[in-house]
Amino acid sequence: MTTRQTRSVGDGSLLRRYEYDDGWVVAADVGVDDEAISVDTVGDTAIVVIERDGGPAESEFELPGEARSVSVSNGVLTIEGER
Asked: Which domain of life is it from (predicted)?
């Protein structure tokens, strides 16, 4: 496993990208309830909308390829793809 990217995005969320021989994983600790997160992927772009008291906040980021699966558990967004 190789960690290729670690960065903080807009609201302090931590985004990490892991690369494996057969695929990749992008994970972000967004720190909100699972129901407050909406994710859509288009090609190699992820669009994340987080509902907060002040209204929705939208963020986009580039993925290493097309997403195979997207999940949110305990405030952690995970997007997986194949090589």
From this structure: Archaea
